[in-house]
Amino acid sequence: MVEGTRLEKEVQEFNEVFRAIQSEVGKVIVGMEEVVSGALSAIFAGGHVLMEGVPGLGKTLLVKSINEAFGLAFKRIQFTPDLMPSDVTGTQVLTEDEAGRRRFVFKPGPLFANIILADEINRATPKTQASLLEAMEERQITVLDQTYALKSPFFVLATQNPIELEGTYPLPEAQLDRFLIKLMVPAPSSRQLKEVLVRTTGTERATVESVFQPHEVVERVEAMKQLVRKVVVADPVLDILVDLMSSLTPGSERASERVNTYVRFGPGPRGAQAVLLMAKVRALREMRINVAYEDIRDSIVQALRHRLILTFQAEADGVSADELIREIASK
């Protein structure tokens, strides 16, 4: 009984913090409710976020606002074709002490922060993009023969522009798979655009305040991440998720004709993990400590849209990954 009461209190606090962060971000960001909630859900699920949208929609401002609401250590990396891996991870620098002795000292790069904004990540070369792989998966980096642990919590929120082709390097499938979810940033509606103009062209500017005290932010974020892991998943719900993953894998007995025609490679186990973690966060936001099918259905598109590798036939017929995923999830 005591354990149940304590758990209910933790769920209530989780929702209060989640809504407080949304409210603070909403002081600066107009609309984008689904993008904001998706990014926050991924952070508390312990994953990374890839955001895609045309220039000028406020992707960078959104990430900065989220960080200000958390109050964590923040670094922004502007990815360009001439950016080197050492510019991201850090490097060994030859220094000389007062006695004249020379030695190599590691100078940490911008990855040594809690929230990393990888701005326009598809503008960097594959070599530099790959410098994030170890950091995103193992939360550490290796320089020469030394391994350095990164701060905890550690999140990468990357942005990319879908319309520019010259001077860009699309992320390989292995790196896309490192992102827990992919969010599509929409253009504002007429009403939202009017509100953006009012907020950004006047003399007053809204400021985002941290919802945490500086001394408690790391401990509380880690506690909220652990609470997500405590959410219960019944076997029937797991079976549904497994069936959905099988239905999106071409060549499986559950795959439809459209999936076999339009999908070259389906989502792997990491995709199923992403769906389940996002579903657990959604369950907590609904004040539940157990995952329901609705949580799976509402999380599956964000978690899998970047993991389906489509065929040329899909592109020719104008069929998108989102469309196929929704089609399977609605059955």
The percent range for strand residues is 15-25%
Major β-sheet annotation: 5 strands, parallel
Taking all Cα atoms into account, the compactness measure Rg is 21 Å
Q: List unreliable stretches of 5+ residues.
A: none
Total helices: the number is 15
Can you offer a commentary on this structure?
The protein is an alpha/beta fold and 331 residues long. The chain has 2 domains: 1-83 and 110-197 and 216-229, P-loop containing nucleotide triphosphate hydrolases (Rossmann fold, 3-Layer(aba) Sandwich); 231-331, Helicase, Ruva Protein, domain 3 (Orthogonal Bundle). The protein is 47% helix and 15% strand. It contains 15 helices and 11 strands. It has helices spanning 2-26, 33-44, 59-70, 85-89, 126-129, 133-138, 173-176, 190-200, 217-230, 235-247, 257-262, 269-285, 293-304, 312-317, 321-329, and strands at residues 49-52, 74-78, 90-96, 102-108, 115-119, 140-143, 146-149, 155-160, 181-184, 263-265, 309-310. The strands form 4 sheets. The chain has a 5-stranded parallel β-sheet with strand order 2-5-8-1-9. It has a two-stranded antiparallel ribbon with strand order 3-4. It has a two-stranded antiparallel sheet with strand order 6-7. Helix 1 (2-26) packs across helix 3. The mean pLDDT is 88.
Task: List the keywords.
5-stranded parallel β-sheet, 11 strands, alpha/beta, 47% helix, Rossmann fold, 15 helices, 331 residues
Topology of this protein?
Blueprint: H1 2-26, H2 33-44, E1 49-52, H3 59-70, E2 74-78, H4 85-89, E3 90-96, E4 102-108, E5 115-119, H5 126-129, H6 133-138, E6 140-143, E7 146-149, E8 155-160, H7 173-176, E9 181-184, H8 190-200, H9 217-230, H10 235-247, H11 257-262, E10 263-265, H12 269-285, H13 293-304, E11 309-310, H14 312-317, H15 321-329
Parallel strand pairs: 1-8, 1-9, 2-5, 5-8
Antiparallel strand pairs: 3-4, 6-7, 10-11
Helix pairs in contact: 1-2, 1-3, 2-12, 12-13, 13-15
